[in-house]
Amino acid sequence: MRTHYCGELNSRHEGEEVVLCGWVHRRRDHGGVIFVDLRDRDGLVQVVLDPDRAEVFARAEQVRSEYVLKVSGRVRARPRGTVNPDLPTGEIEVLGLDLDILNPSETPPIQLDEHGIEVSEELRLRYRYLDLRRPEMQARLRTRSLVTRTLRGFLDAHGFLDIETPILTKSTPEGARDYLVPSRTHPGEFFALPQSPQLFKQLLMMSGLDRYYQIARCFRDEDLRADRQPEFTQLDIEVSFLDEEALMGIMEGMIRTLFREVQGVELPEPFPRLTYAEAMRRFGSDRPDLRVPLELVDVADVLGGVDFKVFAEPARDPHGRVVALRLPGGGELTRKEIEGYTQFVAIYGAKGLAYIKVNAWNEQGREGLQSPILKFLPDQAIDAIMTRTAASDGDLIFFGADQAQVVNESMGALRVRLGQDRGLLAAGWYPLWVVDFPMFERDANSGRWMALHHPFTAPKDEHLERLESDPGTCLSRAYDLVLNGTEIGGGSIRIHRDAVQRRVFDLLAISPEQAEDRFGFLLKALRFGCPPHGGIAFGLDRLVMLMTGATSIRDVMAFPKTQSAACLLTDAPASVDEAQLKELGLRIRTKG
Amino acid sequence: MRTHYCGELNSRHEGEEVVLCGWVHRRRDHGGVIFVDLRDRDGLVQVVLDPDRAEVFARAEQVRSEYVLKVSGRVRARPRGTVNPDLPTGEIEVLGLDLDILNPSETPPIQLDEHGIEVSEELRLRYRYLDLRRPEMQARLRTRSLVTRTLRGFLDAHGFLDIETPILTKSTPEGARDYLVPSRTHPGEFFALPQSPQLFKQLLMMSGLDRYYQIARCFRDEDLRADRQPEFTQLDIEVSFLDEEALMGIMEGMIRTLFREVQGVELPEPFPRLTYAEAMRRFGSDRPDLRVPLELVDVADVLGGVDFKVFAEPARDPHGRVVALRLPGGGELTRKEIEGYTQFVAIYGAKGLAYIKVNAWNEQGREGLQSPILKFLPDQAIDAIMTRTAASDGDLIFFGADQAQVVNESMGALRVRLGQDRGLLAAGWYPLWVVDFPMFERDANSGRWMALHHPFTAPKDEHLERLESDPGTCLSRAYDLVLNGTEIGGGSIRIHRDAVQRRVFDLLAISPEQAEDRFGFLLKALRFGCPPHGGIAFGLDRLVMLMTGATSIRDVMAFPKTQSAACLLTDAPASVDEAQLKELGLRIRTKG
């Protein structure tokens, strides 16, 4: 039906006769001539219709925004002075020789031809087919397609097989709530939609398939936080007979190839690595944003004896932590700004935000500092703080003092917030592996040991013997890949021995009966020649969001759901016939 | 952990030290030496362990079938006379210098080292991780991965974007039963799992994305016939601004590329085409197997007047059909064989299977024929039948006479069955487009018009005006791709005009209210500049089944379900906690 896409025309096509199909992005009448900006997937081109061809002109007079046209015409240079340097096709225009209206359009509720007019996300989701016509949305979906193509290309070339695993399956143990699917053939029983293909990919390794990948749809019925979706996509990978070094090496190569081919950027080789312990110590986070040039500095050792309970108590508490965070040039912060940050850290449970302004330390020493807490701090403590933080005149030092978890969360978040607010973020991409995670963490409420990753993660060989005697110090063979402060991937070497898996279940207080009921098939499979194996999964939505600079994963999905897990476009979920429920052996529970 | 895959070693590696990882396929002790056939994804290699290395030998003595080993050794030529020409690695063996048992195995319930021992499919599904270790299963999954890679490569190169559509969605109108997913955030309401992404891919065209594809999981809660699965995979495609000729051309190129790259076979260019009417007339089927060199021949016109009700009544009935089917060399069929075919056609509703044996027509004419019905047939009818079927001595002619649908189904099936039984199938691949389908067919029970494809299929432009006055003769812009008697793909140009869509809904007795409730969002989208568009979907499981020569789609899926839609491996579906049901606002319906 057409000879070219609109967006591909340029001065090299001058004089050619072309046929274009697309949407009326904008129509203007000027000097007795009609100008139509015609839009397709590739871009915009200006079509000019003059009254010389009366019949064509009469049709052109009918067109409105978002009409679908087929236009035949001749490419010509734009008259001097009307070249549009902002448009790839801006040097030329198409003189319209014929025009068919393929389909009219009602006035769209979303204006596509004006920038800067903010449309509510509700309207965008309800008329998603209009929203997706916007060039920036098309560019995001195009990038997403290119990202998956590039990832697949790399994995195919490295001997990975693309294998599909079931969507209708058994409840998986990721910890979140499952979506359930009632079975008609087994009334009263349910399938679960997978939170990840974790157990199936391990079974594929037990099947000898050696290297597996899948771009897999996953499901979590969670109360949706800021940027979660009930269904999301992960690049899921598993390999046999490789240790973590080898797997991480291949994955680095994949991500490096991705950024080279899609972004034209060379990532560092190798990616830097931090242990979990060091990441928490320096950044208060296991997914530190290395673009922010600020670090937490431990000062508990010099504050344990001061006459200021706010510092002294956590400094002496083995579960407490006291840190300083120097903000270069922070001396210029106003009282109001500092008050704002105090409210910010309160979100994370911090009870206050102490600080010292460094006005003239070099010349005046202690007299050159300004702080409500200065009076509590002896010279020795101040000297130590100033030395460790390498503070100098014009800086400000924030303090966090509380239970370690509160300090890490609040000061880790403050570090990133300050980096953003103060324009301190380095440009570019900062990937990072975080390794040496603890195997377990204690649940604050129940006091029970919980798996930090999932219960199939292998402990380090050398920690295996103290699994029961000192689980808190056992490290796992897990690894996370962090990019600019976002975890984009995570995985581990798995347990491949029946006996070890049972010991871990024991420690997690999963009884043999529960284990049998939930993972019996996996435990059984471990006894029939399970190879050493491990894997990783990447959050594709989040990765594409980062790469496209979108601010929400909803902007990199064609048909996302709202925060209440509804589709405004199709009006799903919806009620169903009583007959359907009856067939499934179900009844709607009445209130009360 | 390894230097090579087992299966890649050959005489070029002689003298090299290698490290292999894999499973013990077979262990034999012979002449004081242990032979281990070590297996991995790539194949088998023979490892020889001799008592010279006492410690290694002692470990080798412990190994049993399906133990996981890491073996270091040296590649050497097999001694003269022990070369195994059936094995790609059969010229060499690996002298084991070291051996680690990475994991032992209990005795597997499926023997993997013996061919010809039939294992029940139930056992295969329950221990799928063992079944998948069989080389033929691995080869199938590997081919499947290669098939999807090749299809994607073609589509990527042709400007198609890979776009994901939702799994949690609204009931789709494919006609089969939906799987439902209760919503926790909207109690009493349900998502449906998609039977296909049909409406979403049309919406993507309305979004201006121009060319879409997806390897999409689809779901149907049907009573599983022979070779259906509750979840299956289709290659889903949709394009804008292309007519059926252009789209079929691209798709032919894709399938031709696929068979060239995966099978090393050149398919015909272009693929032959049949109209629906011709396919039914000549083969009694809209998915004829062109490997079978037999055709139905209409003979109603010469039998309407005979004194034999079985023929005469359907011959005079406008809904009846009478055909002859000549089987070359069929004169040798025994009475018992003919009886068998009579029972076979009865499955399709045929009340009998008349036949004429052509013993000596050339010399004796009518006297040379043998048939219980001969006495009813005047010379003129016999002459016409013999001429039209081109029968000659030694042949047999079967007859079908009944309602056209019964004749088509029974004689179409008999045609294929005879082709198989009599070894008449041509070798190779016979693709075929079937086009010019009717828009509608009348439901036999209700008398209502039903869409032969789906209600979004466009009628041919030239039939639009008689849509209401004579729907039975309206043809659609649908097309099916048939390969060796199996429909592997089907699609259509869609309705892109609001008014036409409403007329089709009217004709299908879908009221405006029902249309609004079920497809309101689509009808609305049609009013905002919908481009002309169309698409196609290929059944990936079935295509891979054909290409791998598997006899069931279960053999080309890693984790299929049983005929009662259960997973024997994981024991899904399963019962869930009362608390989970409560959260979903559901109650199990008690009997009675």
UniProtKB/TrEMBL annotation, chains A, B:
Task: Identify the SUPFAM superfamilies for this entry.
Answer: Class II aaRS and biotin synthetases, GAD domain-like, Nucleic acid-binding proteins
**Region (Aspartate) location:** 198-201
Give the GO terms filed under biological process for this record. aspartyl-tRNA aminoacylation
Documented EC number(s): 6.1.1.23
Which lineage is the organism of this entry classified under, starting from the top rank? Bacteria, Pseudomonadati, Pseudomonadota, Gammaproteobacteria, Chromatiales
List residue numbers at the site (Important for tRNA non-discrimination).
30, 81
Q: How does it assemble?
A: Homodimer.
GO terms (molecular function) for this protein are: aspartate-tRNA ligase activity; aspartate-tRNA(Asn) ligase activity; ATP binding; nucleic acid binding
Q: Where in the cell is it found?
A: Cytoplasm
Q: Which InterPro entries match?
A: Aa-tRNA-synt_II, aa-tRNA-synth_II, aa-tRNA-synth_II/BPL/LPL, Asp-tRNA-ligase_1, Asp-tRNA-ligase_1_N, Asp/Asn-tRNA-synth_IIb, AspRS_core, GAD-like_sf
What role does this protein play? Aspartyl-tRNA synthetase with relaxed tRNA specificity since it is able to aspartylate not only its cognate tRNA(Asp) but also tRNA(Asn). Reaction proceeds in two steps: L-aspartate is first activated by ATP to form Asp-AMP and then transferred to the acceptor end of tRNA(Asp/Asn).
Name the HAMAP family for this protein: Asp_tRNA_synth_type1 (MF_00044)
Which protein, by its recorded name, is this? Aspartate--tRNA(Asp/Asn) ligase
Residues bound to L-aspartate are 174, 220, 453, 494
Q: Which PANTHER family match?
A: ASPARTATE--TRNA LIGASE, MITOCHONDRIAL, ASPARTYL/LYSYL-TRNA SYNTHETASE
Q: Where is the Aminoacyl-transfer RNA synthetases class-II family profile domain?
A: 141-560
Family membership, please give it.
Belongs to the class-II aminoacyl-tRNA synthetase family. Type 1 subfamily.
| One Pfam family linked to the record | GAD
Primary location recorded for the protein, binned into one broad class: cytoplasm
Alphabetized UniProt keyword annotations? Aminoacyl-tRNA synthetase, ATP-binding, Cytoplasm, Ligase, Nucleotide-binding, Protein biosynthesis
Could you confirm whether the keyword ATP-binding appears in this record? yes
Reaction(s) catalysed by this chain, per the record, are: tRNA(Asx) + L-aspartate + ATP = L-aspartyl-tRNA(Asx) + AMP + diphosphate
| Amino acids binding ATP | 220-222, 229, 487, 539-542
Q: What class of enzyme is it?
A: ligase
Q: Which GO CC terms are listed, alphabetically? A: cytoplasm
